[in-house]
Design a protein that fits this description.
By secondary structure, the protein is mostly beta strands. It has 2 domains: 5-35, no CATH class; 66-146, RNA polymerase II/Efflux pump adaptor protein, barrel-sandwich hybrid domain (OB fold (Dihydrolipoamide Acetyltransferase, E2P), Beta Barrel), CATH 2.40.50.100. The chain has one helix spanning 5-17, and strands at residues 22-27, 30-35, 70-73, 78-81, 97-98, 103-109, 112-117, 122-127, 134-135, 140-146.
Length: 147
């Protein structure tokens, strides 16, 4: 077995002690990802400033977040799509309610379509990216007012 129960418990304890929300490891060519969610603590994806050189920063327009909202951020670099196919109804619209697990968009990365699912429940306040636009890792995609 790739990961025994004791190893899994150790990793969970490591996450708790170090106050981590997410941990991903690869061992023997197999990968495991642990994710902990709490409504009080929104998921924040760190940006990788170590790979950016001065003058080569991505030009992301900085938006002020509306008080009491949470950003759904891109977990990867790719192309943002609001609907499952051209001409199809978008996954979400401004003003719609979402629940954890609802698909909110697709990000195409390396010819693979990756469904992005909500990790919180709430109302979509704003869609921050246009359909077909490239997105960066950690870039805000949606503003959500939690329930």
């Amino acid at each position: 077995m790739f990961l025994d129960l004791e190893k899994l418990k150790e990793l969970m304890e490591f996450m708790n002690v170090n106050e981590l929300c997410e941990l991903e490891i690869e061992e023997e060519g197999k990968r495991v990802k642990l994710k902990k969610f709490s409504p009080e603590h929104p998921i924040v994806f760190p940006t990788r400033t170590d790979v950016l050189s001065p003058g080569n920063e991505p030009s992301l327009e900085k938006k002020d977040t509306v008080e009491g909202t949470i950003e759904i951020k891109s977990p990867m670099v790719g192309t943002f799509y609001r609907a499952p196919s051209p001409g199809a109804k978008p996954f979400v619209e401004v003003g719609e309610d979402i629940r954890p697990g609802d698909v909110v968009c697709i990000i195409e990365a390396m010819k693979l379509m990756n469904e992005i699912k909500a990790e919180i429940g709430g109302k979509i306040i704003e869609i921050l990216v246009e359909n077909g636009e490239p997105v960066e890792f950690g870039q805000p995609l949606f503003l959500v007012k939690p329930f």
